[in-house]
From TrEMBL, chains A, B:
Pathway(s) of this molecule: Cofactor biosynthesis; adenosylcobalamin biosynthesis
Name of the protein in question: Precorrin-3B methylase
Pfam families in the cross-refs: TP_methylase (PF00590)
Record-linked CDD domains: Precorrin_3B_C17_MT (cd11646)
Top-rank taxon: Bacteria
Gene Ontology biological process terms, A to Z: cobalamin biosynthetic process; methylation
Keywords: Cobalamin biosynthesis, Methyltransferase, S-adenosyl-L-methionine, Transferase
MF-aspect GO terms: methyltransferase activity
Length: 260, 260
């Protein structure tokens, strides 16, 4: 059987990788990933053939993984977080789709058995670090306008604001792009209190993890980099302080039927 | 140290529970959960004191967990999926908040060290089973109107439709409630093609897992029960068929810059 595992390795901490993901990596002879992820997985990936391609070479990475698997080498395509959320899994199926439409010349891809194994995504890591920020309806929005027109992203932010969803921003900034986050903040401020709690979570679950809780009014792209998740509470999210510990939670509903 | 672990055990398959979650369960003397979840975790929970409370007794379960931990017993409050997503974690912090406001009489709760450990949520399990349905911006909406007014839920569905988010419906039906899902479908149909792919995933990752891919027009609450996740694609989600395998993926963006 020609096998490709498409594996989410979680945010960073090795104890947050599911056994299913670890087993898929162990069963593979070849690993395809952005180099940094393989470093985080150091203990799990020794003795494997590593295929490292730089950031930006996403299509090439998915093609390589399909080619390796089609050649008979059991292969794991790995990304951090959940590989199904803003990550490589969708590209694998986009390539498969193109082949099915006759727009690629790789009929051998169609013989590859594909198994996708999800992982803990950044929004979940961030929410858990500060309590229960995703306790009620939420959405995710990528602020990268590389593949999505900015007008589409604006529309989505406006809808998230109107619907009072907790919002997690992925790709909040990049090396070349940092104005979108402040623009998004201003759009949310039109429909949500200035005091709405905001989580700024950097390098979540890694040794240099930094967690900061601020407010929507004080959110500033200058405090955010490529390794940061930004989550904005809904209008009922609460920031509470118990001695030296701070928490943010979003209640389960709006009616507050909980008896006191 | 008085310790409460708040643990998400994933959708069901034991190989989808993170080592961090397993370690927290192992470190605990007392486990608080809905009985069914403990059955799924059979191998991990032997030798522990089990505190099973029925569905509906959520507040009591969170109180019990805080009380046990405050009494010095290391305790794990467990739910399936991600305990931070429509689950028990937020209730723990709601109780803590009430105590901080003086609306409860449990000052001992404030001395409990709380650690939240997320798990793989149903939307992730479902998306991975059919490929990469959450490949771009998505949201989750609970259709339970127990704590949220139905008008608020309707507004949120309309905003999700207007923003073209992939939508995962949690609590799509209950024993007493089943009309909301068809109403939600009709709202989405006003702004999304009838052919939009829909995933109906029942008992995800469990031995009796059932996966069905249908269209938005054909989605019917009669095919859905309490153990089912329903995810609706966005306007660009694609349903593809490769021999005996079917997949649904949502492309990464809208501009389709991928070269062919």
């Amino acid at each position: 059987m020609k096998q490709l595992f498409v594996v989410g390795a979680g945010p960073g901490d090795e104890s947050w990788i599911t056994p299913a993901a670890s087993q898929a990596i162990q069963a593979s002879s070849d690993l395809v990933a952005y180099g940094l992820y393989l470093e985080l997985l150091a203990q799990q990936v020794s003795g494997k053939v590593h295929h490292e391609l730089p950031l930006g070479a996403e299509t090439e990475r998915a093609e390589l993984a399909l080619n390796l698997a089609a050649s008979g080498r059991t292969t794991a395509l790995i990304s951090s977080g959940d590989i199904g959320i803003y990550a490589m899994a969708t590209l694998v199926f986009e390539l498969l789709d193109q082949q099915l439409q006759g727009r690629r010349d790789h009929p051998e891809w169609l013989d590859v058995e594909i198994e996708v194994i999800p992982g803990i995504s950044a929004m979940q890591a961030g929410a858990s670090r500060v309590g229960a920020m995703l306790g009620h309806d939420f959405c995710t929005i990528s602020l990268s306008d590389l593949l999505t027109p900015w007008e589409t992203i604006v529309k989505r932010i406006e809808c998230a604001a109107a619907g009072d969803f907790v919002v997690s921003f992925y790709n909040p900034v990049s090396r070349k792009r940092n104005w979108q986050l402040n623009h998004a903040r201003d759009l949310l401020l039109q429909q949500r209190p200035a005091t709405t709690p905001v989580l700024i979570g950097r390098q979540l679950t890694r040794s240099d993890e930094q967690i900061r809780i601020t407010t929507l009014a004080e959110l500033d792209a200058a405090d955010v980099d490529m390794f940061t998740l930004v989550s904005v509470g809904n209008s009922e999210s609460r920031h509470i302080i118990n001695g030296t510990r701070e928490w943010v939670y979003t209640p389960r509903g709006y009616s507050r039927k909980l008896t006191t």
